[in-house]
Design brief:
Layout (H helix, E strand, L loop, with lengths): L4 E9 L3 H16 L6 E5 L13 E2 L2 H6 L12 E2 L2 E7 L5 E4 L14 E2 L2 H14 L3 E4 L3 E6 L5 E6 L2 E3 L5 E6 L3 E9 L6 H9 L11 E10 L9 E7 L7 E7 L4 E9 L9 H8 L3 H7 L3 E11 L10 E2 L2 E3 L15 H20 L9 H7 L2 H8 L3 H23 L40 H7 L12 E3 L4 H10 L3 H4 L5 E5 L5 E5 L9 H5 L5 E3 L14
Helix pairs in contact: 1-3, 1-7, 7-8
Length: 548
Amino acid sequence: MERESMEFDVVVVGAGPAGLSTACKIMQLAQQNEQELMVCVVEKGSEVGAHILSGAVFETQAMDELFPDWNDRGAPLTTKVTEDHIYYLKNQSSATQLPNFMTPKTMHNQGNYIVSMGNVCRWLADQAEQLGVEVFPGFAASEIIYNEDGSVGGIITGDMGISASGEHKDSYMPGMELRAKYTVFAEGCRGHLGKQLISKFELDKDKAPQHYGIGFKEIWDIDPSKHQEGLVVHTAGWPLNSETGGSYLYHAENNQVLVGIIIDLNYKNPHLSPFDEFQKVKQHPVLKQYLEGGKRVSYGARAIAKGGYNSLPKMTFPGGILVGCDAGTLNFAKIKGNHTAMKSGMLAAETIVEAISQDKVGQDLTDYAQKFENSWLYKELYSSQNFGAALHKFGTFLGGAYNTFEQNILGGKVLFKLKDTTTDHGAIGLASEFPKIEYPKPDGVISFDKLSSVFLSNTNHEEDQPCHLRLKDPATPIVINLPKYDEPAQRYCPAGVYEIIDSPEGDKKLQINAQNCVHCKTCDIKDPTQNIVWVTPEGAGGPNYPNM
């Protein structure tokens, strides 16, 4: 197909913290070197920040390096952490508050800020545009352009106006080729192009498999008398049993709290519903005391890549680089990935500018590996490499004790290496071998159902378009997943996308409500047969998070 084409020095896929930091740093360096570089950022959300979901307690180290005067520039970092409370929930009504010396120091948040990363990314996009970056929201990068020598040459944005049956509608508009000397993939966790690149260039060869969690978040307006701006609360334990994860509640500004849970996706029981575990944990007095009398105003969910150092792929390949959560740079020992994503992008920017100034085009940016190993980012990830594996192998209590010893007593020195070589989708067991879980009905006050929750995510897709949740084999959900695993997609999806229904013929059928999809990528990760492939829908589709 003949397509319009635009040429850039660098194309960045994704306007999250990693992608925008890459773009900003490239332009800063170009100005210092008196180079003229053309950089564009494409973002599949309807606006910058629309698809950003993060807790978030933000560590400023990377921001301090990128914009030392961020405060004068009006960065939306205003709520400093004042207190850290960490609880072990023993059951549905009791809990023990853990003293700081009994928790990994990586969990301590002195000097950090409670932020909306959606608003931080909007601010970063403004800084990028002031530096001369072109930012294109509403355009999904759907395909990779490969040059004749096999190197990456850019991306193609998704076609618009194709019907569900594949025909061109009156609104049809073919996607554009955005060609570049180097392409930066910053799509976030389980990026669909990043996934293709990791496979094509065998970037994860000899690495432990990536591990994931699903993170939920709600924003609540609460009673001002209960609000303690700057208070950070984390929990472990109930309602999770053998599963690992924990909840959080952060007191942000304007009498709002941010509440959520992260559940590791290596859980075994196929009857588990992460969404219902989240609704359940809010009923615990440690969290409920703040939510009672309040009003829920926003909801969302997103997978996080938490494998850390042991799962990091080779990040470079001819013509491009993976940064941020597309590569898996999150530090799970801190439950933080924004500062690490930013730093990975800044290091990528330095490498790219040096390569272009030396007239190196389309090459493997091998210098990046050395820059990475010389950085605080590498040291941070290396020193916490055992954190997730310890929890997976020893459980929340013993794994937490080991992590506290390694981080607090040994100062992050690694005595021996722990690795979890089981994939998250491979961890799930047979439905017949696990008890079914009866979840309480939502009360509509503290706990809610999926559809009313999705409504608060402002999710919208053009309905008459090809389904972006593709099945390699349409028969697998009913022939394999239903009898063996009771089709867990019904439960692991946080948005009610997958339903088992009776067909007119009386058979069982998987119905995919793709318009509900909040782009969390959990189905692409947890499906036991790896039959579901998430691809980008039309640009601007998906959630429209206002300040998540």
